[in-house]
Amino acid sequence: MSVEQAYYFSVALINLVFALAGTRVREHESNSNSILFFMISFFAYFVSWFVYVFEVGKVLQIIGALTASTFVWGMVMFGAKRCSVNLPCQLPAGLFILQCIIQIYTLQQADLTNYFHVSAVFLPIAFFAIGYMFLKLKVERNPSDITVGYAYLSMATIIIARSILLETSPELFALSSLYSQVIWPAFCTTIGVFALLSYTEEAQNRVAKESNTDLLTGLNNRRMFDVELTHCLNGLARSNNYGALIYFDLDGFKPINDQYGHNIGDQVLIELGMRLKNSARKNEILARLGGDEFALLLTDIGSVQSEARKQAKKLAVRMQELVNTPIFYGEYTIQVTSSVGIHMITPGSHSEMLVLTEADSAMYQSKAIKKGSITFSDDLAQSEYAIAKIGVRDIDHEHEEIDDLIHSLLNSNTITPDNIKNLEQCIKRHLNSEEKLSRELGLNMTAAHLRDHNKILRSLASIDEKNHVYLTKEFVSLIGKIMSQHTFEHDKMLCKVPQKH
């Protein structure tokens, strides 16, 4: 085998490897069959190079030309499928047939100059089209798509330049032929590697998006919202501006599920998610926190607190209007309302948990006062933070003990790590005691109640782990709000289970 034959054989194998590598791709259904065109194209290109390993006559020249054209126009179809472009297959098929007819004619006439010029017409048309699809028409472009697009545009430009050189400067054209033997394999390798990498990047992006997105509504999920909240607090600290967290909970959503079924309930959430997303502005971050609870984070609403408060209230009203607008689904007309809680985030806020708890408490206060109302967390009376009595003597006594300890710390001048540790231990003892008393007295402590106990313990651990250097009244207040909310939602529901006779 000569050096030239070894060169053609090596390039042929490169293209065969890409064709076989395509079999390992499992594409998303929206790009159905794009990888099939990729594999067919590269296999055809493998054949077009492989025939030159042998003594080339007219027949092998024609086979090489036909398979090379198959690669070109097959990649056009690959680009259309990959970029979700509705390209009529008759167009590339017609250009493919026309190119083949003209090339076969020039080969039979042994007119290699015109053969080259024909390629310099059809190949740039195809390559510019592919480059345009990847760079402009593909909706979710990734870096590999951009590389593929520019590789095609660059190659189209080189082909046109060499065609011009053939007529204007044959000496330079002959010199460029040496470089062409490097450029074509490099081009095939580039588009092969990065076209396959594009599938990998797309899959990675989809996984990342699904892990951070509520799959039903398309809004941010709780995980992503927590990340955005952390970024917001850091940004407000740098800018010295105010932000706001708006919690809103749908009123009357459960009866919709009960009356119409969960499928209709899901459609209601999807419609509301779409309305909220379409109305969101640059500094507004939306999320579905779970069930029928949503949150809107305003990341920067100015440096004047009174104006920031007005803006937050105005936006909350706008959100309520979107939620309150009737939803028409088939024969059903469905309407829900929302109760809203707003917490103004100051530039000095550094506790995500405190911000969330304040907004959540304000929202529950709205539901308790009047469903469909709006409550600011700083409008809540201090007495609302006290841990309520539930009518069970031993549990109420422990609530008073925790309440007294919290208020003594809030009224003291300094708070030490030992003070925080003592409060944590007191709450842990109470939760264990409450579970034990519920069993002994036959109280109806539910699984949700127990899960909230675990949530409180995790919250205490999180506060201790993340914020041990910030031993301020802010965190004591946070613990009080967590316990107050737990009592309001769960402890007040404790009662004796009727004995069966």
List keywords for this structure.
elongated; 67% helix; 501 residues; alpha+beta; two-stranded antiparallel ribbon; 5-stranded mixed sheet; 16 helices
Question: In terms of topology, how is this protein built?
Answer:
Elements: H1 3-21, H2 34-50, H3 58-82, H4 90-108, H5 112-137, H6 143-168, H7 170-212, H8 222-239, E1 243-251, H9 253-260, H10 262-279, E2 284-290, E3 293-298, H11 305-324, E4 327-329, E5 332-334, E6 337-345, H12 352-369, E7 374-376, H13 393-411, H14 417-441, H15 447-466, H16 473-489
Parallel strand pairs: 6-7
Antiparallel strand pairs: 1-3, 1-6, 2-3, 4-5
Helix pairs in contact: 1-2, 1-7, 2-3, 3-4, 3-5, 4-5, 5-6, 6-7, 9-10, 12-16, 13-14, 13-16, 14-15, 15-16
Give a structural overview.
This protein has a five-stranded mixed β-sheet with strand order 2-3-1-6-7, sandwiched between helices. α1 (3-21) runs parallel beside α7 (170-212), α3 packs antiparallel against α4 (90-108) and α6 packs antiparallel against α7. With 501 residues, it is α+β, with helices and mostly antiparallel strands. The chain has helices at residues 3-21, 34-50, 58-82, 90-108, 112-137, 143-168, 170-212, 222-239, 253-260, 262-279, 305-324, 352-369, 393-411, 417-441, 447-466, 473-489, and strands at 243-251, 284-290, 293-298, 327-329, 332-334, 337-345, 374-376. The mean pLDDT is 85. It has 16 helices and seven strands.
